[in-house]
Amino acid sequence: MAYEICEADIEAYHRDGAVLLKGVLTEAELALLQKGLEEAGGDPTPRYTKVSTADGAGVTLVDQFASLASPSLKALLAPGRVAQIAARLMRTRSAQLVLDQMFYKQAGRIVPTPWHQDTPFLCVRGQDLARVWLSCDPSPRAVTVQVVRGSHRWNVVYDTRSDAPADVVTAEEGGAFTYDGIADDRAPPAPDVERYRDSFDILAWDVEPGDAVVFNGNVLHGAEGLDDHPHPRRPSASSPA
Hints:
Layout: H1 7-16, E1 18-21, H2 27-42, E2 48-52, E3 60-64, H3 71-77, H4 81-90, E4 97-105, E5 108-110, E6 113-116, H5 119-122, E7 130-135, E8 146-148, E9 169-173, E10 202-203, E11 212-216, E12 221-223, E13 226-229, E14 235-240
Antiparallel strand pairs: 1-11, 2-3, 2-9, 3-4, 4-14, 5-13, 6-12, 7-11, 7-14, 8-10, 8-12
Helix pairs in contact: 2-3
């Protein structure tokens, strides 16, 4: 590995629900990530979704299984390094990749990501799901994934809906995937973390190309936005379990 995961990283992952791994990708892997996100961004799968503000600003392209649209992303994931990272942090003998996604935000207006968990969207339960968030761009903490420290240990799975106001709407879908129906009204809505930020212990990082933020699928996470970000925000998030 380009980065040797140590016991302190593992302890932080289990205690906080997330950890930043600096320089986890080799130069060759980073080149594959950058090329792959451009391949997938230019020709997404039919499982893509575009979200934006209500007035159409700050478009974000989200693609499910983006590696199916990109030979470079497929080559990056094929050796199993992402699964190895997840397995080491989860303290499991192995891990299998169950989902990879792309979140492509152009330079300029960066829309916020509402606070949520990932397990209800994936219809899974338990603690052995890690999200490996890889970026090929400089990403300041305002637009990098942030987490509520320790929220993976609250023993609650929230609904995909939230009572928090959000100026983010679905602008377009590719036809082979929809968020409609991915909800459970028996579960409580996700809390309005953004409105009450001072009441939560929020972890945030400045991320450089080749870094990884790895977080538990049950942890509450989201991202702020910026009106004029000089770089694209092009992460790939994989889900080994």
